[in-house]
């Protein structure tokens, strides 16, 4: 069978991205226009501003991705696009453009779940990785513990009850004056701090051993800061960052280990924007090694929102027979 | 000349095909309930626009590779609605290698009405007690035809301010656009010049008008590369506005 080239488009949040992927495994191009500087002014992603930037940049990223891959639209076999979950305004830009391209060039259209994309980022760098395996997807909008049964079928074992892990990073970073985006800034500050300096709570969800809750931790950090301010005590930002990060990482690793034991998993893949966090990568790798479980994580460029991962997920969905019609709509809270 | 025209700036998803001076196909679906409210309304454009275009193009047997340009209603209007039309046009332009022609939404709307004597006043509900408006009149063009001339450029303003302007101008006015449904009573109470409201078949966005105006703009050499097209919002986002206000006060 000849190669299947996927043009993938992603615009669910503040990255405008397009990619060409061969057979779900090989990245021919991965173009990302990041709007992060724009949103830094507002301390977080502003959906209307993100949507406006997406419309300005959508053709640019698609044209660049095709050019860098050395192909034209005529060579493309399938158009894959993120249709949720995410911000509706931003999603609609990539989706509308993808539908129009698929229609104009008479190519099959495959809508992709953004979280399936994050998981599938692992296929792009780890040729030996095949389902079944366990996965932890952590980002600004998602915290999911998943049993990946096949390329197209997954079972959610645990999810967050309140804030996503990345959201907690952003909120705490703002509170200690590190600014947006919180993840990389806390990661950096934490390297200079003592993770045991402050004993922040490890959030639990009563009666559900795989779910997550980060709002209690976030409140504990804010209380700690308020008390220190009231007593006029100086705080160590690196210590707060390191201790907060340790609390998040402990919980994530604990649930992941519980999960591989209970489900007798042989492989485990970390994914999502927060998968770039150096402490999480190191701790989870070590924990999985102890469990005798093979551990996978993509390079940071494939952890952040990107279209290559949508191309990987889109390929397997396409091979599984998934086709979407021109009426496909964006779904902000699309479930796995 | 062949043009595919799209308008999703308001409650109507509308598309049309123009071929050498004739609107050979036109398809409109009016989505929302009249006036405000239906928050999910914009999303429906995303579900209907391309299936409509597909049906229309197939029904007409048009080879889309023969298009000269894609005309898109550039705004003002619903931010999300505008982007659905723009992203669709940009995707088509990219795929087909065709330019986009940016058509001012209010001018295309004004073209729905033909009246030699009146000021044409399209009003689109802009929320926050405002309407998007521009004012036009028909003037003699070459030969026996009339063409629209802009009397007041597009902006967002309070209906009361618009009525002050029109009362001052002292001429007959025709109102059209979805703003009529929202502000009809306010207009009736405060207007001091002869006026009328355009009937329903010409009150809302029609892609046929976008196509006609688009064809003229293409002839004038005003088509742009699809990657360069962006909607005309007329307003900054709420976050930008609030930030500007906060900085102004600081």
Outline the biggest β-sheet of chain A.
Answer: 5 strands, mixed
How much helix is in the residues of chain B?
Answer: 25-40%
Percent of residues of chain A in beta strands?
Answer: 15-25%
Q: What spatial form of chain A do the alpha-carbon principal axes imply? A: globular
Shape of chain B: globular
CATH superfamily of the largest domain in chain B: ATPase, nucleotide binding domain
Describe the structure.
The complex is a heterodimer of chains A (336) and B (250). Chain A is α/β, with parallel strands linked by helices and 336 residues long. The two termini of chain A are 30 Å apart. The model of chain A has no long low-confidence stretch (mean pLDDT 96). Chain A folds into two domains: 132 residues, Nucleotidyltransferase, domain 5 (2-Layer Sandwich); 167 residues, ATPase, nucleotide binding domain (Nucleotidyltransferase, domain 5). Helices cover 45% and strands 18% of the residues of chain A. In chain A, helix 5 packs antiparallel against helix 8 and helix 6 crosses helix 8. In chain A, a hairpin with a 4-residue loop joins strand 1 and strand 2. Chain A has eleven helices and ten strands. Chain B is of the alpha/beta class and 250 residues long. Chain B has two domains: 136 residues, 2-Layer Sandwich (Nucleotidyltransferase, domain 5), CATH 3.30.420.40; 91 residues, ATPase, nucleotide binding domain (Nucleotidyltransferase, domain 5, 2-Layer Sandwich), CATH 3.30.420.40. Chain B has eight helices and ten strands. In chain B, the strands form two sheets. In chain B, strands 3-2-1-4-5 form a five-stranded mixed beta sheet, sandwiched between helices. In chain B, helix 1 runs parallel beside helix 2. The longest helix of chain B has 20 residues. The termini of chain B are far apart. About 2% of the residues of chain B have low confidence. Classes of the chains: A alpha/beta (336), B alpha/beta (250). Chains A and B meet through helix 2 and helix 3 of A and helix 1, helix 2 and helix 8 of B.
